[in-house]
């Protein structure tokens, strides 16, 4: 992982940066389906430029966010209709298992030599890492300074409770609507049952440690760890704007922080383009999650998703070229880093993102203070259909903290997928 996350990157391995102009066959076209609506405009623009240079038409379809339709749902519908895209996204092992029969072996592709975070199964490469991403609790450093809160102290539950109480008492003076911008509506389950859920799974554990994850997959619940985690969820919900928490979409949640109306944001570095669009000039960075009583000094960093190629596609070579061009051409690298604001997962890419949150992720990673992303060891259906409604009921006051613990415990003990 160090190779992909190192601040000092290796020299470029290719001398020419231009697309392989005109290399596509006349009339050839590919379709890419991805799950990051926040970069849709940038990807559409890059795809159009790539098509103009290569002669290969590409259609970009972005699914997810606040659209109400998950990528998995759309892929299943397209597969049933015989319209499976040539390139699509998987998030991890559970997604791979679902689509294993149509995912192409990409071992030996040129880009595989430039990353240490490709998606592999039993030594075979199947997934092209889209980027390296991370999240903790994003904070407005200017607000924290005005409130007398040291972000370096935010390493456990008690420290966060004290900070939240302090800032909440100063909301009017600081121009805030809420302390935390947090969303837990029915359409934002990926914030709670994907990202926040990972605090339970990996916070405070060595990178790659699956002990808690495997125990929960087996229905064995660590009652103390879950209890501390429930306190953390309750704290976030308590100090969130009720409207954003219960009905807010992605734009509402991110916008509250970007416009200086919330001191903290429960999102990751993928929001950098939103910060730029909102002209957010205040200092910002990440602090760890406070989901435990003891100190934890790190944030969650990994390759969040992977492009895979449909093995049944009639345009496999064109799909392969699209992925390689993203890594080995100047235009591809510019798109990844300067347009989409992503942290590149490839050692040959010398560019670094300008976004403050991405730079914070790189700083945490450079210090080795990172925790795994383990949420994708659970199926999408379990996270979205079983866990997400429990968080939503907690956020809307339909259940209290103890009932949240009980329902989460039952969910793990009765999990069937």
Question: Your description of this structure?
Answer:
The protein is an alpha/beta fold. It folds into two domains: about 1-135 and about 300-355, Periplasmic binding protein-like II (D-Maltodextrin-Binding Protein, domain 2, 3-Layer(aba) Sandwich), CATH 3.40.190; about 135-295 and about 380-415, Periplasmic binding protein-like II (D-Maltodextrin-Binding Protein, domain 2), CATH 3.40.190. Helix content is about 45%, strand content about 15%. The chain has 18 helices and 13 strands. The protein has a six-stranded mixed β-sheet with strand order 2-1-3-12-5-4. The protein has a four-stranded mixed β-sheet with strand order 8-9-7-10. Helix 2 links the parallel strand 1 and strand 2. Helix 2 (about 40-55) packs antiparallel against helix 15, helix 8 crosses helix 17 (about 380-395) and helix 17 (about 380-395) packs antiparallel against helix 18. The longest helix has 16 residues, at about 225-240. The chain is globular, with a radius of gyration of 21 Å. The two termini are about 30 Å apart. Residues about 1-20 have low confidence and may be disordered.
């Amino acid at each position: 992982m160090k190779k992909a996350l190192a601040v000092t990157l290796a020299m470029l391995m290719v001398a020419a940066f231009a697309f392989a102009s005109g290399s596509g066959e006349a009339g050839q076209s590919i379709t890419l389906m991805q799950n990051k609506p926040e970069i849709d405009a940038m990807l559409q623009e890059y795809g159009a430029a790539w098509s103009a240079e290569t002669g290969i038409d590409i259609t970009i379809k972005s699914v997810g966010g606040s659209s109400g339709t998950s990528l998995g749902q759309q892929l299943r519908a397209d597969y049933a209709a015989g319209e499976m895209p040539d390139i699509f996204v998987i998030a991890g092992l559970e997604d791979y298992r679902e689509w294993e029969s149509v995912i192409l072996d990409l071992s030996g592709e040129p880009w595989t030599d430039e990353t240490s975070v490709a998606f592999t199964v039993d030594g075979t490469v199947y997934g092209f890492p889209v980027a390296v991403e991370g999240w903790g609790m994003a904070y407005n450093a200017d607000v924290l300074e005005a409130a007398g809160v040291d972000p370096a102290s935010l390493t456990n539950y008690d420290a966060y409770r004290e900070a939240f109480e302090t800032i909440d008492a100063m909301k009017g003076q600081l121009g805030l609507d809420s302390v935390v911008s947090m969303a837990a509506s029915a359409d934002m389950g990926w914030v709670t049952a994907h990202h926040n859920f990972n605090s339970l799974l990996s916070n405070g554990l060595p990178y790659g440690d699956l002990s808690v994850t495997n125990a929960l997959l087996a229905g064995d619940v660590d009652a103390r760890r879950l209890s501390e985690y429930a306190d953390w969820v309750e704290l976030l919900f308590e100090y969130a704007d009720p409207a954003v928490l219960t009905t807010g979409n992605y734009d509402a949640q991110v916008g509250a922080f970007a416009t200086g109306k919330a001191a903290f944001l429960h999102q990751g570095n993928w929001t950098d383009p939103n910060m730029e669009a909102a002209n957010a000039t205040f200092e910002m960075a990440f602090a760890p999650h406070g989901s435990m009583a003891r100190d934890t000094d790190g944030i969650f960093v990994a390759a969040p998703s992977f492009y895979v190629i449909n093995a049944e596609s009639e345009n496999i070579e064109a799909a392969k070229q699209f992925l390689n061009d993203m890594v080995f051409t100047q235009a591809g690298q510019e798109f990844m880093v300067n347009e989409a604001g992503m942290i590149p997962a490839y050692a040959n890419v010398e560019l670094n993102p300008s976004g403050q949150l991405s730079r914070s992720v790189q700083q945490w990673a450079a210090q080795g203070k990172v925790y795994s992303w383990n949420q994708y060891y659970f199926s999408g259906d379990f996270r979205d259909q079983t866990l997400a409604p429990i968080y939503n009921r907690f956020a809307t006051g339909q259940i209290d903290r103890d009932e949240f613990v009980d329902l989460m415990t039952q969910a793990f003990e009765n999990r069937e997928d």
